[in-house]
Description:
22% strand
Amino acid sequence: xxxxxxxxxxxxxxxGGGAGIQADLKTxxxxxxxxxxxxxxxxxxxxxxxxxxxxxxxxxxxxxxEAVLSDIGTDSVKIGMLHSVNIVKAVIEILDKYTxxxxxxxxxxxxxxxxxxxxxxxxxxxxxxxxxxxTIITPNIDEAMLLSSISISQEKDMYKAGxxxxxxGCHAVLMKGGHLESKIMTDLLLTADGExxxxxxxxxxxxxxxxxxxxxxxxxxSYLALGYTLPDSVSRAKQFVTSAIxxxxxxxxxxxxxxxxxxxxxxxxxxxxxxxxxxF
Length: 280
């Protein structure tokens, strides 16, 4: 039996194409996995920021999830923007029903341009319910400060905040240092088992960074779907995003934060051969 490794993104739509499900599907396609999407919100958005957000009815979110998972299934899930409490509850119900092996949670709360993207009362339910159901969470610095209630200005603060998030029920957390001013970008992967990994990459001078968080989390989910370990998936995802930033650093798209070049080295859709196909 042959099949495509599959990855499902549950996230908001970015009308400008640089972030959200658009960035997720571009990333999955470029890495060579079969991407699917469940839309949780529609945004009026461009390179300059978010102009408006309209959440999708939770029943429609449930219907999308059921349609995909009852038929196609998935090898991993990436979760992005969950705009309301009821949408979070809808996602939790389906996750508990189908129990996908890998869940990468990108707690989208603050955009690259500094706009708040989530309702205040949704933050608590995400922490209380989704952290423990996720393989890894990938907050940016602003989101990590919001979730840990501490200020982060240097690497030691990232460690401290990461430990706080692990105590909130996370199995693993990737603390991203991209918003800190440094020539070297340092990310920290901390696990509940006490494992620690450091990932370093050069700081590429460019304003084309819109959708980096979405692309990174969906790349991690894609590599998990391909069978790589969590540390290896994070490492490969970091390399993918760094290369995508480099490839698009001088390209002008819009008047604000431009997108990455996801297709710097697109891979063909992988075909896996197994005697028995595992749906989840």
